[in-house]
Amino acid sequence: MAKITLDKIAHSYLPYPKTDADFALKEIDHVWEDGGAYALLGPSGCGKTTLLNIISGLLVPSLGNLLFDKQDVTHLAPEQRNIAEVFQFPVVYDTMTVAENLAFPLVNRRIPRDEITKRVSAALDMLDLTDKANRKAQGLTADEKQKISLGRGLVRYDVNAILFDEPLTVIDPHMKWQLRTELKALHRRFGHTMIYVTHDQTEALTFADKVVVMYEGEVVQIGTPEELFDDPAHTFVGYFIGSPGMNVLPCDVAGDKLTLGGREITLGRRYPKMSGKTEVGVRPEFVRLAPAGQGAAGGLPITVTAVEDIGRFKIVRAQLQGHSFDAVLPEGSEVPAEASAVVDPARLKIYHDSHLVRGTA
Amino acid sequence: MDKTPNNKAWFMVLPVVVLVAITAIIPLMTVVNYSVQDTFGQNQFFWAGTVWFEEVLASERFHDALLRNLAFSGIILAIEIPLGIAVALAMPRKGLWVPVCLILMALPLLIPWNVVGTIWQVFGRADIGLLGYFLASIGVDYNYAQNAFDAWATVIVMDVWHWTSLVVLLCYAGLVSIPEAYYQAARIDGASRWKVFRYIQLPKMNRVLLIAVLLRFMDSFMIYTEPFVVTGGGPGNSTTFLSIDLVKLAIGQFDLGPAAAMSLIYFLIILLLSWVFYTVMTNYGADKNPAGGGQ
Amino acid sequence: MTLVLQNVSKQVGVEEHIRDVSLTLEKGSLNVLLGPTLSGKTSLMRLMAGLDRPTSGDILVDGKSVVGMPVQRRQVAMVYQQFINYPTLSVYDNIASPMRVAGADKATIDRKVRAAAELLKLTPYLERTPLNLSGGQQQRTAIARALVKDAKLVLLDEPLANLDYKLREELRVELPRLFGETGAVFVYATTEPQEALLLGGRTATLAEGRVTQFGTTIDVYSRPTDLTTAQTFSDPPLNVVPMVKAGGQLRYDDKTIAAPAGTESLADGPYTVAIRPHHLMLHRPAGAALEVTAAVSTTEITGSESFVHLEHGGSRWVALTHGVHRVEVGDKVPVYLDPAGFLVFDAQQRLVAAPAGQSAAPGMRA
Question: Is A247-357 assigned to CATH 2.70.70.10?
Fold first, then answer.
């Protein structure tokens, strides 16, 4: 287990990068604590796999240094960094049994036989594979094979970090759930530093203590799942996290007054004068509906286009001044025919050029 | 897949059926015909039953030729398969050199077989051949026309030169289909080069190796053109393989009956040995999956 | 067109891939096939398309049997999970291909290709080949190709499974809209219950080759006819609790609770009660609830909600609660089973009682 320091790391796939746009991964300067579970979350092409490859050693970054504890590993090969990696599809040695697969990394490092047996049976126990120990790895299901891949990392005590590159990609949907929970439980129990790359927000939020949200090569926000949900620092985070994502609409802000949809709402904080793109964000979970005309001046005039009932809650799709505006209502709620939206001003987030503005109390 | 039957498909197959019938099935039937008949000439044939088969199977000439073939195939497989794998492993998998290497490997396979024979025949001559001249000049006594060992060596080296590329190309195809993640995982696991070969590359090449072995075995067992052009079966009958013997019998001596019987026996031997190879190799693979299936 | 499957079965070797399926799909309807992997969704779609013949049973289009008709004549369009496009043709040619095969004239082809590209936001990419597009764009090309066919039956086999999460959300809203306007029968296969609920329409739940229920999606969700259907339609998995009814009470372990409305007429005896994760609470609810003590095994936080995994009496339960719950592994916490959410099944696993109040409401997309 190690503390991982990203010291002004940036990467470009071009030999002579000039502008910011040439960088697939823009400068990131951050420290990850020992033993934490981190997720790199973002859409395809956001740079998360590039960052993972830099940490695993498959890629040497164009700029910056990578440190494990105090050791600079930027130019070290993967096998010298003491990391373990679980890939998108299961990588197992087909001709060996499950137990032999798990023993393989230790055998290569010339660990004594009885030590190997001890660690392998501990790993088999952790992964719930003890009864399959002597079966050929080739005949197992995809999720069992992924567990073997993970197991090869768990048997080594010198592992600095375990990296996961979208490991649930080939897993059956009903097994995904279970494997995810098991990974989380394993992390709780053994405290290895784990870094998990995914484009699925549910996977990221359920697995990680801290999530690194990335967009177009840049780290947009690093925070706990609650922070990302309650306090998105960028409109992209608001959009990407939460299903459906945050409602983001253009508005006017002057002091503590917000003008939206022709209504004026008093905010709890004061904001400076801002030129450029000013937007307000509010999560659909914090939007309530009231019959039109009620809710006083605070009710926003929306036009409901569709209602989706998904059992435990309802999603109301609406439009406000030509922009989409969604609301999430609890199970069994009534949707008025003519509705207006009521929001708690404390839940409104103000964004300037897509970045969060906090204002003053 | 359970397609709705479309009878028009039979018409597409018809030309091929006709062609195969003319070039293969009818001649085969003729051979079978000859193998059970005897003649005194003037196109008069009478039934001879299995007499020719018994004669061939009992003849020492046949046994010797058969042993020569088995030895030859055994040596060929023992050299070409490992050599082919080694070359395939050494070939680059990405980059500019890939097409260059592939073309170089394909070249020997494109040469007509009797030209291959002629090349080596001239190559080995002490007077005008590069190899022969060179060996003579350093004092090695090399003469494929008079020395049985030299004749065998020449034929074997010629076959290796000619056909190893096939094994290389097949194994290479198997190798490039291995996803990069396997190599990365092996690096992370600290596996040595040999272990990577043994546990990742070799298992994944299993299927193509089976094809390579079968092809090489069958082709080497029925070899004719190249050794015939170089040595003509000599010196004496040291390189007289079954095929060469068969031709001597059929066209040289014009003993149609025994020749026909011999060719059928030859055919059945190849079939039997190929089946054995195939069963052994696929069962060897199957033994490793007791649960069957997987992905 | 109306597609009717009558007692269709499909046997491959010794395995029965489809068992005795009867379905009626109305013109212009949106139908979802929901079930786990290998439950028969793809096999059923192939039978509907005409790529396979049923071993027994009949398939009728507008009342006429089409079992012998080859797929080319059936006016079917299919979109797959892997983005299937002609790799050497440009996006324009890809979308145009079905019309070219049908022999349409250039002007019509051009008009329809551009219209489809516009709908699927592909207009800037018309000259590119599929390999130079992102996954989402490739799938949109495949969808556009299906759209221009003007097919009467559109089959989509988990088309969004290989796409990024957010992209999936966007396309999921667009797809029914795109095909709804053509009046075709729209069939969408998926393994995720959430997707079925978001799409609406009608859902057929499949398990092991059999259709266990077919009806309005929200009805199948709230009133599943048997336990298998309820479990198919649940993600995360249902909590299944055996209870005994005695008089007007339901008993579990040593706790009792007044039996919920709708169970009065049931005989006394053992029943299986299924409770959805969001009806398992960590705070005492306003109404009556059955309280048990369970041990926490893991907590997963998804922004505004938490999944709390519990162990009780050897079974594993999942509770979905609002807000962030920071509980430690091994903590013993009180868990409240809300009878308002009880789905009661009898010994043959048939539904005998379900919460009232959840059915298709007016104003909703059906």
Answer: no
Q: Which residues of chain A have pLDDT under 50?
A: none
* Domains of chain B in sequence order: 33-283 (1.10.3720.10)
> How far apart are alpha carbons B250 and A117 in whole angstroms?
67
Distance from CA of A334 to the nearest CA of C (A): 9
Where does chain A have alpha helices with state H? 48-56, 98-108, 113-126, 142-154, 173-190, 201-207, 225-230, 235-240
Nearest to B68 by CA among B10, B141, B152: B152
Interface pTM (ipTM) of the complex?
0.76
Q: Is residue B221 within a helix (H) or strand (E), and if so which, with residue range?
A: helix B202-221
Dist. CA C337–CA C345, nearest whole Å:
16
CB distance B196 to B183 below 8 Å: yes
* 8 Å CB contact between A175 and A167: no
Task: Supply the pTM of this predicted model.
Answer: 0.79
User: Which residues, in sequence order, are CB contacts of C185 under 8 Å at separation 6+?
Assistant: C1, C2, C3, C25, C26, C27, C28, C29, C31, C152, C153, C154
Per-residue confidence (pLDDT) for residue B34, from 0 to 100: 84
Tell me the chain A residues in contact with residue B184 when contact means C-beta distances shorter than 8 Å. Answer: 56, 58, 78, 85, 87
Q: Do B191 and A108 touch (CB under 8 A)?
A: yes
What's the gap in Å between the CA of A136 and the closest CA on chain B?
6
Residue identified by tokens 């927000």 is A201
Give contacts of C53 with chain B, Cβ < 8 Å. 2, 4
Q: How far apart are the C-alpha atoms of B179 and B182, rounded to whole Å? A: 6
Q: Report yes or no: C55 at the A interface, CB cutoff 8 Å.
A: no
Residue with tokens 């609810």, as numbered in its chain: C285
Contact A242, A255 (CB under 8 A): no
- Do the Cβ atoms of A357 and A287 come closer than 8 Å? no
Select from A94, A132, A163, A164 the residue whose CB has the most chain B CBs within 10 Å, as the one to mutate to test that interface: A94
CB contact under 8 A, A226 and C301: yes
The CB-based long-range contact list for A75-79 (8 Å cut-off, 24+ gap) reads: A77/B187, A78/B184, A78/B187, A78/B188, A79/B187, A79/B188, A79/B189, A79/B190
Looking at the complex, does the CB of residue C329 fall below 8 Å from at least one CB of chain A?
Answer: yes
- C226: tokens are 């048997």
Contact B78, B254 (CB under 8 A): no
Residue C303's φ and ψ, nearest 5 degrees, are 75, -95
Q: CA of B191: which chain A residue's CA is closest?
A: A108
Distance of alpha carbon C199 from alpha carbon C338, whole angstroms? 28
Is C361 a residue whose pLDDT tops 70? no
Positions of CATH 2.40.50.140 in chain A: 247-357
Query: What SS3 state is found at B284?
Result: helix
Pairing outcome for strands A63-68 and A71-72 = antiparallel
> With contact defined as beta carbons under 8 Å apart, do A327 and A284 qualify?
yes
A4-240: CATH topology? Rossmann fold (3.40.50)
Probe site for chain C from A178, A205, A312, A334 (most C CB atoms < 10 A) = A312
CATH 3.40.50.300 region(s) of chain A?
A: 4-240
Mind listing the pLDDT tens digit for each residue in B160-194? Answer: 999 999 999 999 999 988 888 888 888 888 888 89
Residues of B whose CB is below 8 A from A93: 199-200, 203
User: Are the C-beta atoms of residues A191 and A35 closer than 8 Å to each other?
Assistant: yes
The values of phi and psi at residue C6, to 5°, are -115, 115
Digit-coded pLDDT (tens) for C277-331: 888 888 887 777 888 888 888 777 777 778 888 888 888 888 888 776 667 777 8
Per-residue DSSP letters for A220-263? EEEE-HHHHHH--SBHHHHHHSSSS--EEEE-EEEEEEEEETTE
Please name the chains neighbouring C, where neighbouring means 3+ C-beta pairs under 8 angstroms.
A, B
Can you tell me which residue has the tokens 């910011």? A20
